[in-house]
Design a protein that fits this description.
The complex is a heterotrimer of chains A (270), B (258) and C (261). Chain B has 258 residues and is mostly helical. Chain B has 11 helices and no strands. Chain C has a domain of 66 residues. Classes of the chains: A mainly alpha (270), B mainly alpha (258), C alpha/beta (261).
């Protein structure tokens, strides 16, 4: 995959490639600042105002409180979704008939946005933390089930056959062939689902809770048009989302699992 | 997983659906709940909406919003993604920005959208645009980046100028990956339209979900709306998958021969 | 020269008996007949090559014999028993991608030895690592190995469980021609040492004449047995000898290929 621009020139120094991303971010910030300065929309904040807002949150101790609250809810909802969704997806792929019967039904429930579950969540769990966790659970469990199912379907026939050839019982095949073989794809699915869980935290925290980054965004606007806090919340969400994603990628690169990388597992965007 | 016959592919899910409806009906009858609707109530709710002409109107409105936002995302995302994929340096600069903006829920953009567009359709369409943009952009970028050098070289060998090279070699080669992104983006667009409608407008399936509850605890309509959302989402997904199966594109999706 | 010591003459009893084997696949519009009424006997300790052009169905044949696919009609018997499914007594050697990427070389080779006590396992693994010439790579993962090395891991894994029969499906197809020659030599050496019955599928005429006691030449789809060629050359086989060339050219002609390109 040669860069057509540098085909005939010596390779660019490593320093340049590290500066480029920073340059991109700097450019974005500059454009943002200029856009605000010259726009007729006085309400939207520029980057400096947002930075100040974050500082304000940190000073008052709210920063920590909101971040922890959101992480807490996402962790619970996500882990529950993993505990339910991954085995479910594996079973769907293992038992052909079950899979054929239930997979289309999962595909019907999956497009229902997390927000659309709010009325039912409130009905079943009342208003508060439990509903929020439920919303996150519902949003992550279906993508996880589908990812697990497709990971199992992606195990090469050769490996299945080799397992059968050596006289392994179905239980042994599940343990010694299936689980290791699906691990790389499953990890990618887990990473993507974590992204979804985090994305949904904003929707989840609309249910009259009183802490969390999602709550911050909604409340800041409702309580006094503090758009600098709104955007501060967005920035924090974006940053933490990036950090979570990077952490999961780090897990994918662990030495014990690196074979999956090398075995050309097609991951989503690099 | 391949069904052994088309009959199996239809019969099994239908049987499972019937079983679930039966369980649902039994659960409602057994717990004697007054709030959660029975399957019959939901069906009645749908019929009610159809009679009032609202069913068609709401579905149409939601679909139109999706079409507008998704179409805009296509118009921006594909050319931009192809450009970024073609110029790796630009991609390296843009990548952190994209990765940063991506996890921010479209819902978080709502206040911004409202300030920019006011509380109306444009805000909702803007949200859909934002949400669909990223999968399309990223898949176009990756699709073009992954085109093997030898394809480009073959094109250059045949004397193709840059624009023809992009159109006749790079874009078709990247198409399978782009189509995957399109499918994901359509799914996201459908989810977001429902979410956007809950907040910013007063028609559409999303609006129906919220309004039914707020205006009179009509949970039968809430569940009816959810079911419709789910079914239409599934149909949209199937539609894009059919497009992927067209002969012209199927080469990219063929499974590895075992 | 492919070197291996001469095998002891093995009139041997019948190990594998195929009768009337046919296979049909239901395609998109019509039925595809892949195999047509095949009959074949393989003696114990024999090295038999199944030769045919790509797509003729020889891999299907091997998969049926190995028990991974049920035939449309006909029977496959080994030691008189009908084959009903895969069996650790007859191990299939896939191409290098059959190796488990999540296990080391040791882990792969020891894969079928789970029921043995630890010391015995360790001994066997070490023996087969040495046999296929991979000392020093015990803890390596497959993605760190070359194609030829991965192939050797697979052969070692198959041998470690001491099967009666080995099925090899174009195992050297993904390797470069130099490595291929080396691997053939290795395989013959191992065959002499372990005295297994081997069924080897290939599309390479030279390969079949270099390796086999008998070559079963299949026609194009639907595959029938065109001819069974007895290769009466002792090992090590001289690739320039008249007899070798005669046998090779005979098969060329049987398949209908001229001597000039």
């Amino acid at each position: 995959m040669t860069d057509p621009e540098t085909k005939h020139r010596p390779a660019a120094p490593a320093l340049a490639s590290r500066l480029l991303p920073l340059a991109g971010i700097a450019l974005l910030l500059l454009l943002w600042d200029l856009a605000i300065r010259f726009s007729r929309v006085p309400l939207l904040p520029g980057p400096l105002a947002v930075a100040r807002a974050i500082g304000e949150l940190a000073q008052k101790g709210f920063l920590f409180k909101h971040v922890v609250a959101s992480l807490f809810r996402v962790t619970w909802g996500y882990l529950l979704a993993v505990a339910v969704g991954v085995p479910f997806g594996i079973l769907l792929a293992w038992y052909r008939r079950g899979g054929l019967a239930l997979a289309p039904l999962v595909e019907v429930v999956r497009p229902i946005s997390a927000l659309a579950w709010i009325p039912l969540a409130i009905l079943w769990f009342g208003v508060g933390d439990l509903s929020s966790v439920f919303i996150i659970f519902v949003a992550s469990v279906f993508p996880l089930a589908v990812a697990s199912m497709s990971a199992v379907e992606g195990v090469s026939t050769t490996h299945w056959n080799a397992g059968r050839n050596f006289g392994l019982t179905p239980g042994e095949i599940a343990r010694r062939v299936l689980l290791p073989a699906i691990l790389p794809r499953l990890l990618v699915g887990l990473r993507l689902a974590l992204g979804i869980a985090w994305l949904v935290v904003v929707a989840a925290e609309m249910i009259a809770v009183d802490s969390g980054l999602g709550f911050l965004i909604i409340d800041a606007r409702n309580a006094g048009n503090r758009y600098d806090l709104v955007v501060a919340g967005m920035v924090l969400i974006g940053t933490i989302g990036l950090a979570l994603d990077a952490a999961m990628r780090g897990i994918e690169r662990l030495p014990a699992l690196r074979w999956g990388y090398a075995a050309n597992v097609s991951a989503e965007a690099a | 997983m391949k069904p052994r016959s088309p009959l199996e592919a239809v019969l099994l899910p239908a049987a499972a659906a019937a079983a679930i409806v039966a369980l649902w009906w039994a659960a409602v009858a057994w717990t004697k709940t007054t709030v959660f609707p029975s399957p019959a109530a939901v069906a009645g709710g749908i019929a009610d909406l159809a009679r009032k002409g609202l069913l068609f109107a709401y579905v149409r409105d939601s679909l139109l919003r999706v079409a507008a936002g998704y179409g805009a995302a296509l118009a921006v995302g594909i050319p931009l993604g192809v450009f970024l994929g073609w110029r790796p340096r630009a991609a390296r600069a843009a990548n952190p920005v994209i990765q940063f903006l991506r996890p921010i829920s479209p819902l978080a953009w709502i206040p911004v959208a409202i300030v920019l567009f006011g509380v109306n359709d444009s805000a909702a369409i803007f949200l859909i645009f934002l949400a669909s943009l990223f999968p399309i952009l990223v898949s176009a970028m990756n699709g073009v980046r992954a085109v093997p050098a030898m394809y480009r070289q073959a094109g250059e060998n045949f004397g193709l100028p840059r624009r023809a090279l992009l159109a006749r070699v790079v874009f078709p080669a990247a198409l399978p990956e782009i189509l995957t992104g399109l499918r994901i983006a359509l799914g996201v667009a459908w989810i977001v339209v429902v979410a956007a409608e809950m907040i910013a407008v007063n028609s559409g399936l999303g609006y129906l979900v919220i309004d039914s509850r707020n205006a009179g605890k009509r949970y039968d309509l809430v569940v009816a709306a959810m079911l419709l959302i789910g079914v239409i989402g599934l149909l949209l997904n199937v539609l894009v998958q059919r497009v992927s199966r067209l002969r012209a594109v199927r080469w990219g999706f063929r499974e590895e021969a075992s | 020269m492919i070197s291996a010591s001469s095998p002891e003459p093995a009139p041997g009893r019948t190990k594998l008996a195929i009768r009337g084997l046919s296979m049909m696949f239901r395609g998109a519009d019509a039925e595809v007949r892949v195999l047509e009424a095949l009959d074949l006997d393989v003696r114990e300790g024999e090295f038999v090559c199944i030769l045919g052009p790509s797509g003729c169905g020889k891999s299907t044949l091997l998969n049926i014999v190995a028990g991974f696919l049920p035939p449309s009609s006909g029977t496959v018997r080994i030691d008189g028993e009908e084959v009903r499914g895969p069996d650790p007594r007859r191990i299939f050697v896939f191409q290098e991608r059959g190796v488990f990427p999540w296990l080391t070389v040791e882990g792969n080779i020891g894969f079928g030895l789970g029921r043995l006590p630890k010391t015995e396992r360790g001994k066997r693994i070490r023996h087969y690592v040495r046999l296929v010439g991979l000392e020093g790579f015990e803890k390596a993962y497959p993605h760190e190995l070359s194609g030829g090395m991965k192939q050797r891991v697979e052969v070692a894994r198959a041998l470690a469980v001491d099967p009666d029969m080995l099925y090899l499906d174009e195992p050297f197809g993904a390797l470069d021609s130099i490595t291929r020659l080396e691997m053939r030599r290795e395989l013959l050496r191992i065959w002499q040492a372990e005295k297994k019955t081997i069924l080897f599928v290939t599309h390479d005429i030279e390969e079949s004449v270099q390796l086999a006691d008998r070559v079963v030449v299949l026609s194009a789809r639907p595959a029938r047995i065109r001819r069974i060629v007895e290769i009466d050359l002792p090992h090590p086989r001289d690739l320039s000898s008249r007899r070798y060339l005669e046998l090779r050219d005979g098969i060329f002609e049987e398949i209908g290929l001229a001597h000039r390109v």
